[in-house]
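Quick one, tokens below:
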């Protein structure tokens, strides 16, 4: 298959790819997604094949605005409207009950929900993608556009590294402005539960809703047999080929710790201010210590970069857990298989 490059001028053509059951690389503010018609089980199955994604890991349905919620979700709690009004379009996925058809089956195909009675709904903050979905007239099911297990793509070029020849087309709308996947909040439980941290922060959710629980899988490795509420959180994820060690603590101390222990061919992920510590090594800096938004935009590109470079292992300075830092540390910790040293 020849993967066609589309631009933001090609909304109609992109919508035809979706409507005809094809696979489309879609830009969003979080990461590039691998989209297909979310009501067409065969098209959805092709997403799993292109990614090599485990079948029990559900996809998110992308819609152009809040009014589409009631087409696919039933018993929508007031909190969903509160959050949609405040954060949509934006990097927030809400887990809601599936709407039932007359015969009692779910309207959203089991291929999307992995057979669950809930569905993840999101309205991306990307005008061209919302226009494509509206023109296609169907919700777009999309996970991140990487091969399963690899870092998510934050540019069309990064997505093509994994998906060239496997998808019909990709719509290039430049690099992603957030850089980590959407926040996932489960609104089918009380209190609402954060399943995956992302661009909408825990602090913002608490401000909107009051109490928000944080799923265990956000901060630690699941033991064998344990089932996190977001099935995707149990998989090894975001990982470059070389093993990663995360070092947590004051930035001066973590830099010193890494310098003292790294090998000749070790690579480093560090803050901009510390590049000079690691001269002679392959270094990917992710932004200044204080600029967490930049760290979020850079983290996946940094992890991906090492796959083109000769390193035996990778050391990473860990950002703090506040704001979007919770999402960045979650991705980094997962890339490291939760191999974390706390100073
Ligand atoms: P990705 O966009 O590649 O990160 O994949 C979508 C994520 O959403 C995965 O981590 C899924 O486990 C999660 N997800 C999608 N639907 C549901 C659902 N109904 N309940 C819980 N998690 C979900
Ligand atoms: Mg993913």
């Amino acid at each position: 298959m020849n993967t066609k490059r589309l631009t933001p001028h090609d909304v109609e053509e992109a919508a035809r790819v979706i409507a005809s059951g094809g696979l489309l690389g879609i830009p969003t503010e979080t990461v590039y997604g691998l989209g297909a018609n979310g009501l067409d089980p065969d098209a959805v199955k092709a997403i799993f094949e292109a990614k090599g994604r485990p079948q029990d890991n559900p996809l998110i349905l992308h819609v152009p605005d809040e009014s589409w919620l009631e087409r696919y979700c039933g018993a929508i709690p007031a909190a969903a409207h509160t959050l949609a009004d405040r954060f949509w379009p934006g990097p927030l996925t809400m887990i809601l009950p599936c709407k039932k058809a007359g015969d009692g089956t779910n309207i959203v195909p089991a291929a999307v929900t992995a057979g669950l009675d809930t569905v993840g709904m999101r309205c991306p903050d990307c005008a061209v993608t919302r226009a494509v979905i509206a023109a296609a007239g169907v919700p777009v099911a999309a996970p991140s556009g990487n091969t399963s297990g690899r870092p998510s793509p934050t540019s069309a070029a990064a997505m093509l590294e994994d998906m060239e020849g496997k998808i019909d087309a990709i719509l290039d709308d430049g690099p992603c402005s957030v850089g980590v996947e959407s926040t996932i909040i489960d609104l089918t439980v009380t209190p609402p539960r954060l399943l995956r941290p992302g661009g909408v922060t825990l602090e913002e959710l608490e401000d909107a809703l009051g109490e928000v629980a944080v799923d265990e899988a956000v901060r630690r490795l699941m033991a064998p047999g344990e089932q996190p509420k977001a099935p995707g959180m149990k998989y090894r994820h975001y990982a470059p080929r070389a093993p990663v060690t995360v070092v947590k603590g004051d930035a001066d101390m973590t830099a010193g710790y890494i310098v003292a222990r790294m090998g000749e061919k070790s690579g480093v992920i560090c803050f901009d201010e510390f590049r000079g510590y690691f001269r002679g090594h392959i270094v990917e800096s992710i932004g200044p210590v204080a600029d967490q938004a930049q760290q979020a935009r850079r983290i996946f590109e940094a992890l991906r970069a090492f796959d083109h470079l000769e390193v035996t292992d990778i050391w990473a300075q860990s950002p703090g857990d506040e704001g979007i830092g919770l999402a960045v540390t979650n991705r980094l910790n997962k890339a490291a298989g939760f191999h974390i040293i706390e100073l």
